[in-house]
Amino acid sequence: MAVEALSPPVGQPPDPDYQMGLDLMAFQQKQRRILSIKIAVVWLVLLGFVISFLLFIEFDFAYVVENAWFIIKEGAKWTIIISVVSIFFATILALLGALGRLSKNSIALGISGFYVSLFRGTPLLIQIYVIYLGLPQVGKSLALLGASLGLPFLSTVGDWFILTPIQSGVLALSLNYGAYMTEIFRAGLQSIHHGQNEAAVSLGLSRWQTIRRVILPQAVRIIIPDIGNQFIAMQKDSSLVSIMGVWELTYMANRMARKDIKFMEMFLLAAAAYWVLTIISSWLEGLLEKRLSHAYER
Amino acid sequence: MNAKPLIQVENLHKWFGMLHVLRGVSFTVQTREVLVLIGRSGSGKSTMLRCVNFLEEPSAGTIQVGDVVVGCNPGVQPDDKDILAVRLQTGMVFQEFNLFPHMTVIQNVIEGLTTVKKMPKDKAVAFGEKYLAKVGLLEKRDVFPIRLSGGQKQRVAIARSLAMEPKVMLFDEPTSALDPELIGEVLDVIRELAYEGMSMIIVTHEMGFAQDVGDRVMYLENGIIVEEGLPPEMFKDPKDPRTKNFLEPIKKYHTL
Amino acid sequence: MKKLHILASVLVVLSLLLAACGGGAETPEETQPPVEQPIETQPTEPAVAPAEDKLAEVMARGILIVSSDPAYPPQSELVPNAVRPADTKCATDQKTSAELQGFDIDVSVEIAKRLGLEACFVTPDWTLITAGNWADRWDLSVGSMTITPERMQNLFFSQPYYTTPAAFFVHTDNTSFTQPSDLSGKKIGACTGCTYDAYLSKTLSIPGEEINFIVDDAVFSGYETDSFALDDLALGDGTRLDAVLTAQPTGVQAIQSGKPLKQLGDPVYFEYLAAAIDKAHSKDPTSFVQKLTEVIQQMHADGTLLGLSQKYYGLDLTTAAGEFDVSLLGQ
Ligand SMILES: Nc1ncnc2c1ncn2[C@@H]1O[C@H](COP(=O)(O)OP(=O)(O)O)[C@@H](O)[C@H]1O
Ligand SMILES: [Mg+2]
């Protein structure tokens, strides 16, 4: 913006008041700079409060420095892997769920409605327990059925139901967040003006082609910030998989704290690590949003 | 004129809930004919046009476009294949343009060719460029719609429809959303099409233009075709009092 | 029972098919598990579930998968910055004995060694271990688990490898009590709802053990945790409490940290801590449990366990466990 304004417009007679425009731009720029300096100061003051809080509770900085890398290397790795994989599957589920919710097919409507209701209506922790503890029992029943019917392959199928902690965690997080995000996707798809749909079908595009080529690309741009929010929430909810013994951030911090009786140190270290992760995520989300907005910039 | 009309609509009814919007409309469009549809706001013009290419599903009636005949009755859903066949023969231009904002101008124009007709990309682009040139916007080829003026958008939308090579073009108030100084460029494109012999149904409030390009005018009121005739006669001397009522105040402000 | 099984399975298969046909957006896995069945059906249906041997499976595999939650030092805790041995046979989602340490870990490694196996660890939450139904994810728990009647419903127990002795502690100033039976009618503190509470109210029952309730009519003071009770006792002899009943290691630790307390007499009863094996393993665990008991008996007999107990607790917590008659559990 600023750069454009500094060179006189081409192909037009020079404006005698051109300097006035330059002065205004410079003034606005200065005001913006002052604002960001002030904001930075506020951040620093607030950070100061946090640090003085740490001093009050006799926070053992040396201990944290000594152990931070171990906790973060092992813990953040799993937190990131689990959340990234889960948000991927959740997005796919959400898309399918939203298409189901918007379809006129009774089976699709029924399944998607039931899915959203069930997985939004029950706690994530219980879903994790049910998937981790309950699914293997389903597999076992299948194997028994296979044995009694003389279908040995059912016992192989039954083994698929025994999920590792990470698989269980990813499945639970994907299903749970997929249910929430179904509603986000649905709202996003519905927010696209119906004229887009009409123009597409007038050209002869099928319903699915219309969604894939016309509606979805526009909806995604609107949905991206919400997906970003869900991703941030998921990073923190991923700590629930620690109950199955996955050594992610919260688990590492908790077990280390128990070992050395350094609870505040470890919890605040984990909190800081989550914070940094979410800041990085927001930044990435911003980049993505910008890329997708390319077509909408004048 | 051909013996067999390009479009033949018979006894078309459309209900929105308990609102009876089209009450048994019948009309024909011959090949190379330009039919102009006029009427008050809310009289059912858009609905009628949209029923022709099944953007709205007719509640009852028969619609024939080219060789495809679709009979509609309450409780009977028309076949998807027939609907597609009708849509491939009709090009629709909307009041609000409805360009795809995430696609460049050329991508907009070739979307139907590549996705529906499965035309190879390079061939589709050549095709699309031909029609962009026709509406005078070839140099905007790689621009996103947001950088176009309203008139330019509507011309791209026309090119997008023309690229599919339909047998008939449907225009629903193509200039109503435009600033006055931009209307002319769009009407010029449509006029050009008319001279080339494109069959069209045009809903418009531009009476001068209607008289200029129209082969026949139809006045719709409350879902019924009140009167139809040749443009000069109908505008100068409408027979039905309802048509007179509608045209009188318009004539005051426009020299026809 | 069997019919229910088949019904449940048919439902699952149907829902799988439904999902597959309907263009399957959603995973069908939310089916409710038939919760109470596997334990009961397992033994009664040898014909449908061919009895393979758990021990044979473990021996063939070459690693012993042990569950241990490293949340309880000094039994099990993390080793910061540990390096995994390059030649380990443990899977990537299992921990090696280098990455964990503690009494339970040493015991696990020793058991594995005597079976000619490598010990590999998984670290599920304590509730998941005690719940049973491990789905063959791990072979046994070596997690200082007390043998209780409730847990015996889901789990088999080996010969206990150590004990938690329950002992009375009094203030150092006290001279009037010489043995636990002197505490009848006195003010005694303990944690609420734990075994010490049950002992004082004479409702405690421990599988395989005859308990002598030698203290009558104690005036019970309940505490959130044992350490609060010990703090109150340390205020002075009889100030708030006359005695506290708690785990011997807990009391000893309090004394070592400088509290003016002393142990009164011998432990009054023992809680037995053993390796646990899921009853719902898909393979027959009988000989596996038997083998574990043999190995642990050996480890008692040659003093290995006593040495580990001295190393981690500075106490003999194992002798009573070696004397325990595991056949009394009737499992
Ligand atoms: N989708 C719809 N649902 C309900 N009523 C509609 C719908 N579309 C149009 N109508 C109603 O049908 C009547 C005719 O509308 P329309 O065909 O758009 O009129 P025109 O184009 O002549 O202004 C109006 O009363 C309008 O409110
Ligand atoms: Mg209209």
Describe the structure in your own words.
The complex is a heterotrimer of chains A (298), B (256) and C (331). With 298 residues, chain A is mainly α. Chain A has helices at residues 2-6, 18-56, 61-102, 106-121, 124-149, 153-160, 165-190, 194-202, 207-237, 249-260, 263-292. Chain A starts with a helix and ends in a 6-residue tail after the last helix. Chain B is α/β, with parallel strands linked by helices and 256 residues long. Chain B has helices at 45-52, 80-89, 105-115, 121-134, 150-163, 180-196, 207-213, 231-236, 241-253; strands at 7-16, 19-29, 34-39, 60-65, 68-72, 90-93, 168-172, 199-203, 216-221, 224-229. In chain B, the strands form two sheets. Chain B has a six-stranded mixed β-sheet, sandwiched between helices. In chain B, α3 (105-115) crosses α4 and α5 packs parallel to α6 (180-196). The mean pLDDT of chain B is 94. Chain C has helices at residues 2-21, 37-44, 54-61, 103-114, 126-130, 149-152, 195-200, 226-234, 248-256, 286-301, 304-313, 319-323, and strands at residues 63-67, 77-78, 95-96, 100-101, 118-122, 140-146, 155-157, 162-171, 187-191, 219-223, 243-247, 261-278. The longest helix of chain C has 20 residues, at 2-21. Chain C is 34% helix and 21% strand. Chains in contact: A-B, A-C. At the A-C interface, α3, α4, α5, α7 and α10 of A face α1, α2 and β2 of C. Magnesium ion (MG) binds next to α1 of chain B.
